[in-house]
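DM between two lab members

TW: hey, do you still have the Membrane protein entry open?
JB: yeah, one sec
JB: this one, 186 aa:
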Amino acid sequence: MWRWHRSALRRRSDVVEGVVLMVLSVLLVAGPVLMGVLAFSSTWHTGVRQEQTRHSTPAVVVDDARAAAPSPAVRPSNGETTATVRWNDTNGTEHTQTVRLDHGGKPGEQVTLWLDQHGSPTQAPPSPAARGVQSSAAGLLAAGGAGAAVLLTRHLARERFERGHDRYWGREWMEVEPRWARRYHS
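TW: and the structure you got?
JB:
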């Protein structure tokens, strides 16, 4: 707070440094909280929007594309299956397309297929629990990133101010040192 008091030793650069560091300190508290809340809210509403715009429909597996894969190295190990499925839309029109399925995939097997608002196959919307986890993770990552960015900016600003102080004191010392050491020449 000494930067705000009137003093013959106070320089304009001291006031600028005080303002910059105060603003960065406020941002260090408010910035991560704001970024975390915004990221959480955005991710949550994206999940809600997906839940509102996607719907499930029954589909029948026509062809097991995974069985046709040339080697086990090409097949995914997480249980996903690529298969050709057939389904009817709300108008009764039949569609056939190769899609990725979480499980299943044998010809004739009935599976649940998720469609977007245009009727195209898509992933299932996240469950409320998954949406909460995703939103929380996004919020924490955004808050951490914002906090790290403000800390880095504050560190760089302090380094720059310190270099300015060193230059200033170096110039002052060049003027004062000869007199101080009794080597002043007129």
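TW: got it. The longest helix spans residues 128-180. The radius of gyration is 32 Å.
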